[in-house]
């Protein structure tokens, strides 16, 4: 079992729809959770971080964390073609260790 | 403030040659990470440093790979001798302790012929 697993893609949604990206992790001691966006040919870019159970909203993006279920998700509302990218989930094991483990990513395509 | 800087951006070399990749982290960050990304294997952590000291090099594929961080503003990843299977994009990232949020450089695309 991988330490961080993401729902297999690719994921395709129409423009204006909600895109839902999911991630599960195996280590119950994990304390920090991140979503990175990577456009084709570019480097990963941090878009959301979440540390506590519940929802965290930033513009059209909402990260949801459920530590009991070892589950973290990213919702993108009003999806735009510019959101088409690969989204990487990353999990850190404690806030001072520095290291994060990345999932394999989910590729999202938003169709006009 | 400038982000993470990597050089070269592209490197094409022949099998058996030595390759050196360079990274300058964001000023004030005390963690530095080297990753390799391929279509087949995704994003792999090779090694990371804290305060210039290597903490975990378990991801380094073999002895042909080595990494150094002589000071807080510079790190190198060296491959000697290089092989075609080393062809990948190599990313350097840095972070500040306590947050784990990593900031990635633009990457070096390495092609070994």
Secondary-structure blueprint of this entry?
The complex is a heterodimer of chains A (about 110) and B (about 110).
Chain A: E1 4-6, E2 11-14, E3 19-25, E4 32-38, E5 45-50, E6 54-58, E7 61-66, E8 71-76, E9 85-92, E10 100-102, E11 106-111
Parallel strand pairs in A: 2-11
Antiparallel strand pairs in A: 1-3, 3-8, 4-5, 4-9, 6-7, 7-8, 9-10, 9-11
Chain B: E1 5-7, E2 10-13, E3 19-24, E4 31-38, E5 42-50, E6 53-56, E7 65-71, E8 74-79, E9 88-95, E10 103-104, E11 108-112
Parallel strand pairs in B: 2-11
Antiparallel strand pairs in B: 1-3, 3-8, 4-5, 4-9, 5-6, 7-8, 9-10, 9-11
Essential attributes:
heterodimer, A: 112 residues, mainly beta, six-stranded mixed β-sheet, five-stranded antiparallel β-sheet, 54% strand, B: 113 residues, seven-stranded mixed β-sheet, four-stranded antiparallel β-sheet, 0% helix
What would your notes on this structure say?
The complex is a heterodimer of chains A (112) and B (113). Chain A is 0% helix and 54% strand. In chain A, the strands form two sheets. In chain A, strands 2, 4, 5, 9, 10 and 11 form a six-stranded mixed β-sheet that branches. In chain A, strands 1-3-8-7-6 form a five-stranded antiparallel β-sheet, with no helix packed on it. Chain B is an all-beta fold and 113 residues long. At the A-B interface, strand 5, strand 9 and strand 10 of A face strand 5 and strand 10 of B.
Brief summary:
The complex is a heterodimer of chains A (112) and B (113). Chain A is 0% helix and 54% strand. Chain A is mainly β and 112 residues long.
- Output the radius of gyration of chain B: 13 Å
User: DSSP helix count of chain B?
Assistant: 0
Name the chain pair whose interface involves the most residues: A-B, 21 and 22 residues
**What summary fits the major beta sheet of chain B?**
7 strands, mixed
Strand content of chain A: over 45%
Taken in chain order, the helices and strands of chain B follow as: EEEEEEEEEEE
Largest sheet of chain A: 6 strands, mixed
Structural class designation of chain A: mainly beta
- Straight-line N-to-C gap of chain B: 37 Å
Strand content of chain B: over 45%
Quantity of strands of chain B, as a count: 11
Low-confidence stretches of chain A: none
| Unreliable sequence segments of chain B | none
Kindly state the percentage of residues in helix of chain A: under 10%
Computed structural class of chain B: mainly beta
């Amino acid at each position: 079992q991988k330490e961080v697993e993401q729902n297999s893609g690719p994921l395709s949604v129409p423009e204006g729809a909600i895109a839902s990206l999911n991630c599960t992790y195996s280590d119950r001691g994990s304390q920090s959770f991140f979503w990175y966006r990577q456009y084709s040919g570019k480097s990963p870019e941090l878009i959301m971080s979440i540390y506590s159970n519940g929802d965290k909203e930033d513009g059209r993006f909402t990260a949801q964390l459920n530590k009991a279920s070892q589950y973290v998700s990213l919702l993108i509302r009003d999806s735009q073609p510019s959101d088409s990218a690969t989204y990487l989930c990353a999990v850190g094991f404690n806030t001072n260790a520095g290291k994060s483990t990345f999932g394999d990513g989910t590729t999202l395509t938003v169709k006009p | 403030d400038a982000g993470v800087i990597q050089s070269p951006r592209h490197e094409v070399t022949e099998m058996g040659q030595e390759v050196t990749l360079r990274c300058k982290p964001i000023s004030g960050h005390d963690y530095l990470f080297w990753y390799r990304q391929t279509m087949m294997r995704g994003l792999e952590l090779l090694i990371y440093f804290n305060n210039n000291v290597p903490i975990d090099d378990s991801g380094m594929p073999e002895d042909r790979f080595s990494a150094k961080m002589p000071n807080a503003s510079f790190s190198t990843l060296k491959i000697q001798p290089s092989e075609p299977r080393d062809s990948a994009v190599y990313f350097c990232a840095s972070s500040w302790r306590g947050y784990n949020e990593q900031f990635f450089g633009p990457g070096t695309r390495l092609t070994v012929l």
